[in-house]
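To the structural biology subgroup,

Please find below the input and predicted structure for Bacterial Ig-like domain (Group 1), which we are adding to the shared reference set this quarter. The sequence is reproduced verbatim from the submission form. If anyone notices a discrepancy with their own records, reply to this email rather than editing the shared folder directly, so we keep one authoritative version.
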Amino acid sequence: MIRKKTVFLSFLLMILGIMTFSAISVGAQPRVTFRFNLNPNVYISIPRSPSVNISVDRGEDATYFIGDPITIRYGASNAGYINIFDYTSDGGVIILVRDQRISSGSNLALNSSVSGPAGVERLIILYTPKPVGDNQIQNFIESPHQSGRQFPLSAVNRTHFNVAARARSTILSLEPSSFTIEPGSSYTMTAQLTDANGRPLRGANLNWSTDNGSLSSYNTITDPNGRSSVDYYAPNTTRPSTAVISVNFSGGGGASPSNVQSTVNIISRTRPSEIIMNPTSFSARPGDEVRITATLRDINGNPINGRTLYWTTDLGSFNKSSVATDSSGRATVIYYAPDVSDVTTVSVTAEFRGVTGLGATTTTISGIIEPIFPITPTNTLYYFDFGNGAAEHNFLTMRYTGNLVNGFSLSDTYSLEILSGNNVDLTFSPGSIPEKATLFIWAQGDSGARVRVTFNNRNPLNINLDSSIIEPDNPKVVNIPIQSLVEGNNRLRIEGDAARRRAIHIQRLVIVF
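Predicted structure (tokenized):
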């Protein structure tokens, strides 16, 4: 082992002896190296003699990138010989200057470039009055802090600097760079990391973030093509908004940091809407109040709440000109039928003017307003009507029991509520027995209810009633059996179905002979 060292060092010193003078003059340096790790604590313990100096152009502890130029300045107070040793971070030792003879007070410079590797690079200068023998070089490299024992009248000094690898510039792209999305939906985004020459960088860590919404992942690793993807989830919002998605590469592996952003517009696309009206048509008399309900819903049939519907008509009026829909998407108004002298067709329109994400829509229904003609006592027509809150009639006599209530007719007029034990008792006279007689009754009842109609206590008629509201143009029509009538005064009795005990509501009745 010792022999091998001696042979190696003899060869090394021969090479350095040939190169020493030409290296300084042309700015080159011998790159003869061998391995030794200098302990940082040993380096710190090396004395700094004032009679020998060494420095770098950027100052001690400065940073140089690999490839940067560097100037090493050195000198000594006395004439003698100089050796300079460069300890690299990977355990290499380069002898930059070997037994260079200098004069008293000289100041020299060595120009070179930093070759790395990255880390702390330490320079040690050794001054001796006589040349250093080949066998002494190895001992000094391994124990530079003990130079005084090896070389009497010697002097040492030291300096160090940092070496950093120059990072490759990177380009981080994000597709798409901007896009539009609906609230609550998602979109896949792809980032790609390359170097300045377009070569993909695989295995790089990318950090994702957004200021509005969420992401399927916030940390990804690029694939062999330098790509990685995440899904962006837009927030559920009723207002247009924006979001910024950011991707960051913090650098590493000799690559420089880079970042990129994408802008998201969160806007609801316009959905069609529709209005369903109930009733779809109606008939009324002047002064009647017709309850009309509009239901606003989207194209999928889902109710839309909290939106204003505007009501218009070409004739008549409303209790409200605009109404907001409730949780079921419904808005209800009362239409007041106007005075007319002839049968008149009117239109009623409900309008939704649209909002962001919902299209405007209108629906119109038609109604017929029938004029009121005075009804006078006659033996060809008899009637009664509770619509105005009192019993209007032209029967010879009329007695009834029950309560007058409203809310069971389309026009929200009054009707007589007949419960078990209530009835209406009427008398009328058609003169002689007519050839034909018809009864019209405007009534409704609880589910399964029937109204019982009896003429002169003969053959009662049971009329099944609907549970829907009473509509002006939809009475129950019954042909009266002629054999149930008599000449002169007749008695008509109307009562509920006692066996079923269900409420019925009668608004109007007309008998025509």
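Summary notes: The longest strand covers residues 92-102. The two ends are 142 Å apart (CA to CA).

Regards,
Lab coordination
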